[in-house]
Write a structure and sequence with these properties.
Length: about 325
C-alpha cells in the first residue's frame, strides 16, 4: 500500500510573517498556498515537501523524515533553497518573481507574486475541444513562445535551467502575459541522486537526456521542452515520451500530418527543438529565437486533394482512440 501523502498546512497557519489562506496546488515535490502578508498583500508560497520522502499528519507543521531518507531530503532542500536565491536575482516579466524565501518548520518556503489567470495547459484543452483544424493560430504560437523565450534566455544567462517546462508551467495572466513558473531544480537533484522506481519527469516534455545519468544537460534540455510545448499547441496533445520515440517516431508522423495547416518553417523549428540527439538541437535560446522570428514569406506544403482526403480520413479514424487514451492521462502527461 502506498504511503499517504503528507498533509498540507491548515488555513490560518502563520509562516514567516504570512498567514495561509488556502492550498492552491500540490505535487510530488511541494505544496503551493495562497497566503497574505501583514499588509494584506496576497502571495503564493511554495513549500518544499517531497511526498516520497516525508510524512506529515493533519495539523502538524514539521514534516517527518525517516533517518534513511534524511540525507536525500536535505540534498533536495539545499537545491530548492539555492533555486529560490537564484530566482530572486532575476527580474523579468516572463519569469515568476521570487519575493522572499526562508527556512521554517525544518523545511524551506519560496514566496512569489500571486498570478491570476490560467495555465497554457488549460488553454490547450479548451482550444482542442473546439475541434478546429488549428488548435492555436500560428501567429499566436510564435508570439507566445517569443515571450517565453525572452524569459528563458535570462534564466540561462544566470546559469540556471528550468528543467520542468510544460504547458502547466507556462502561466497566462489575465493581462495576457506569459510567465514561466515552478522550476524543477530540486526535482532534478532528487531524481538523479535517489533510487526512485519511476522517473520524476513529465512524459512528453522531458528531453531524453533527463532519463540518463551519463549525459550532460544544458540549455538544449529546456529547448526540447519548448519544442514539445509548441507541438502540444499545434496538435492538442503531448508528444510521445522521449524514450518511446526511437523505434517508431510518431511525433514526426504527426508533424507531417500538420503540413499545410502550419507553415513548414514552424514545423521544422519544432522538429529541430525535439531532436533526440541533444547536439542536433538549438544550443542556445538566442539561436532558437533567431529562427522563430525570421522575417519573410512562410513556406507551406501544397497538399493535393488526395492528401487532404487522406488526412481528414486519418483524423476521423484516430480522434476517438486518441481522446480515450490521452484524456485519461492529461493530469499525468501535463
Amino acid at each position: 500500500m502506498a504511503n499517504p501523502k503528507p498533509s498540507s498546512l491548515m488555513p490560518g497557519t502563520p509562516i514567516g510573517g504570512y498567514r495561509v489562506i488556502r492550498r492552491v496546488a500540490a505535487g510530488g515535490f511541494g505544496v503551493v498556498y495562497l497566503a497574505a502578508g501583514d499588509d494584506g498583500q496576497q502571495v503564493a508560497i511554495k513549500e518544499y515537501l517531497p511526498a516520497s520522502l516525508v510524512s506529515r499528519a493533519p495539523g502538524q507543521l514539521q514534516p517527518q523524515i525517516s533517518p534513511e531518507k534524511l540525507s536525500l531530503y536535505r540534498l533536495g532542500l539545499k537545491s530548492f533553497f539555492e533555486e529560490g536565491r537564484s530566482l530572486a536575482q532575476i527580474s523579468h516579466p516572463s519569469v515568476v518573481s521570487v519575493l522572499n524565501f526562508f527556512r521554517e518548520n525544518e523545511t524551506v518556503y519560496m514566496v512569489t507574486n500571486f498570478l491570476e489567470g490560467a495555465s497554457l495547459q488549460d488553454f490547450i484543452v479548451t482550444a482542442r475541444n473546439l475541434r478546429q483544424a488549428k488548435v492555436f493560430r500560428e501567429s499566436t504560437i510564435r508570439s507566445l513562445f517569443d515571450e517565453v523565450l525572452r524569459g528563458l534566455r535570462i534564466v540561462h544567462q544566470h546559469k540556471m535551467l528550468h528543467l520542468d517546462i510544460k504547458p502547466a508551467n507556462v502561466f497566462i495572466t489575465d493581462d495576457n502575459k506569459a510567465v514561466l513558473i515552478d522550476f524543477g531544480a530540486a526535482r532534478e537533484v532528487l531524481s538523479k541522486e535517489g533510487n526512485f522506481i519511476r522517473p520524476m519527469y513529465t512524459p512528453g516534455f522531458a528531453a531524453p537526456e533527463m532519463y540518463r545519468r551519463d549525459t550532460t544537460m544544458g540549455p538544449w534540455t529546456d529547448i526540447y521542452a519548448i519544442g514539445a510545448c509548441m507541438f502540444a499547441c499545434m496538435h492538442g496533445f503531448p508528444p510521445s515520451d522521449a524514450p518511446q520515440r526511437a523505434p517508431e517516431d510518431k511525433t514526426l508522423n504527426t508533424l507531417k500530418r500538420l503540413q499545410g495547416v502550419y507553415s513548414d518553417d514552424l514545423l521544422e523549428i519544432v522538429h529541430w527543438c525535439m531532436e533526440l540527439d541533444p547536439q542536433k538541437r538549438p544550443q542556445t535560446v538566442f539561436a532558437l529565437q533567431k529562427e522563430l522570428n525570421r522575417t519573410g514569406a512562410r513556406r507551406y506544403t501544397q497538399l493535393t486533394v488526395g492528401d487532404k482526403v487522406k488526412l481528414q480520413f486519418d483524423s476521423v479514424m484516430t480522434s476517438t482512440k486518441k481522446t480515450v487514451l490521452m484524456v485519461t492521462q492529461i493530469g499525468k502527461n501535463f
